[in-house]
Amino acid sequence: MNNQKSINKDLILRERLALQRTILANQSTFLAFLRTAMYFLIAGLSLKNVLKIENSIVIEIALFSVSGIIFIIGIFNYFKHKKSILENKKHIGDYQLEYYE
User: Fold this and answer.
1) Rg for the chain, CA atoms, rounded
2) What gap in Å lies between CA 61 and CA 72, rounded to an integer?
């Protein structure tokens, strides 16, 4: 019986650690989206100073739009996965009650 409680405790710990890694991966992915959006934003801001193109405003607006779209997709992706993670958190160790008895 004692061995069973040890196994359950280890499984709960592993599942909690896996959940924590998943949360951190979700945050890291959001930051990658943010970084990419910032690159496009900076490219749009610096385009006029770096290149002498007649209609650079069109390219700037396109880069700003891409930046905004990437940022919005990143936010949507983050909250979608966060909701999924929280929904699955309640399934951690249905045997958890056995451990705390």
Assistant:
1) 23
2) 16
